[in-house]
Every structure is written in C-alpha cells, then in structure tokens.
Amino acid sequence: MSDAVVPHRSEDNAQAPRGGAGWLRSALDSDIFYSFRRSKLTMVAAAVTVLFFLLAIFASWLAVQNPFDPAQLQLINSRIPPLWAADGQSPFLLGTDEQGRDVFSAILYGMRISLAAGVSGVVFAGALGIVLGLIAGYFGGVIDTIIMRIADVQLTFPAILIALLVNGVAKSVLGNRLDETATLGVLVIAIGLSFWVQYARTVRGSVMVEKNKDYVAAAQLIGLPAPKIMLRHVLPNTMGPILVIATINLALAIITEATLSFLGSGMPDTMPSLGTLIRIGNNYLFAGEWWIVAFPGIALAGLILSINLLGDWLRDALNPKLR
C-alpha cells in the first residue's frame, strides 16, 4: 500500500516546480521577449534605463556628498574642473558648480527628482485618463460628449503651456507656502493634467469596441455592476496601447519637468532636478565652466533617448500587424 502512495507523492513534488515556474517559461517563450532578444539596440536601451534608475535609487550611497545639504557644501570648492583636467581634485569626478556641489552627486540626486516627477506624473495622467476614458466609452451619450470636448480643447494647446498654466496658478495661490516637496507635487499635477488626454482617447476607443462583445453582454446579464465590468473585464483588453503611451509619455514628462525647471518654474536651486542643474550651469557656460551644464545635459539626453528607444520597441512589439 505504501509502495502505491510514494510514487504518487513524488510525482506531485516533481510537478510543483514546473507549475510554479510556468509563468516564467511562458514569458521567456513569448513573442515579446523574442523580439526583445533580437534587438541589440533595445537591450542596450533597457540596460541604460535600468542603470539610470539604479543610480537614482542608490544616490545616497554613491554620491560623495548630499548636494541638498548646505552644511556639506564649501564655497572654497566651487568651480573645480573634472578630475582628469589639469586643476581637477579628488573626489570631484565631474567637477563642482558655483556652490561647491559635486556635479556627479548633483546629477544622481537631480536624476532622482526628475524620475520621481516623471513617473508620478505619468501614473497620475494614466489614472485620470483611464478613468475618464472608461466612463466616456462605456456610458457614451452626454458624458462622452463633455469629456471628449474637454479633451479636444486641451489638445489645441501644447502640453508645456498647460503645465506652465497649472504651475503658475498653484504658485500664485499658495505663494511662499510652497516648499520643495510641495513644488514637486505641483509639478506632478501639472504634468498629469498635460498628458491625460492621450490615455482617455485611447481607452475610450478600445472600450467602444469591447463593450459590444459577448463577454460584456454576459457580464451585464448576470447583474455585475458597471464599475466591475469596466475594471475587471474591459480594462485588461486595453492595456497594450496604455503601456506604449505610458512609456513614451515618461520621456515627455521628464522633458516637461526639465523644461519647467530650466525656465525657473520648476524645482528650486536648493533641491535641483536635471533641468535646474542645466539652468544653473548655463549661466557659467561662457565663463569656461562647461562641465557644470555639459554633464547634466548628457545625463538628461541619455535618459530620454533610452526611454524613447524602449517605447519605440514596445510599440512595434505589441502591434499584431508587425508580428
């Protein structure tokens, strides 16, 4: 009797790991991962993007100083060239700015601010656009007309003007009560309100197609509430285009934040993002201190380029016509 039971248990144990790793095997065998492995440029872009995120996350451990802490800054160390230059000094690998901030440390911390504003802005824009797109596409009628007309009006203005308007109104209302953290929150709201339209229009179009299918009619027939049908059944079928838009908009959101900071409407000098660092360095470019603006600009360009390359690949990989 025991001999008949033991093989049965051993077979279950042997199948458990295979079942637990089934999702990983399916992912590795998918068309998307195959497309990713075939594109060397995409793999390099993904590696660079992950590297930038890791540098931002571990900035506190990698930086030689906290550029946001005035106690760690010394004016005697201001405008020191990069380490490989004739007057370079250790440990300032990429030199220092006019306040004695290590440029490499400032880039790490500034990249953290830029990525936080970009990612948070995209999440806010996506959440707002998805909800409004679901409501407009599912219910239609007057609600659809109102939401889409608002979207059409906003599309007549560039995103940077919308962000400037929201940012200016917030600063005029709150005034001196805006600290660094509140300023970052205002930037996130400004970016989110600038990019929600693309999500709403895309989701609305997908929902108008999906709501006429049999599975939605079956869900309505058994009495499921509309929010549950939209979120659990309709929304998953629209995630492909949403992921592509989010990836591309992440680069646009980072550029928008950098532009606002460069124009003086974004992060302050005491908590600089990459755009603020470029604005500060631009004042000393013609004085010969080129490194103050060059290295933050290179970091911003590399980050935007890698994310854009990932967005282009994802758009092609999720397009069934190109498979």
TrEMBL record:
Protein's UniProt keywords contain Glycosyltransferase: no
The entry's keywords: Cell membrane, Membrane, Transmembrane, Transmembrane helix, Transport
Listed InterPro entries: BP-dependent_transpt_permease, MetI-like, MetI-like_sf, OppC_N
GO cellular component assignments: plasma membrane
Matches recorded under CDD domains: TM_PBP2
Basic and acidic residues compositional bias, start-end: 1-12
Region (Disordered): 1-20
Similarity remark: Belongs to the binding-protein-dependent transport system permease family.
Name of the protein: ABC transporter permease
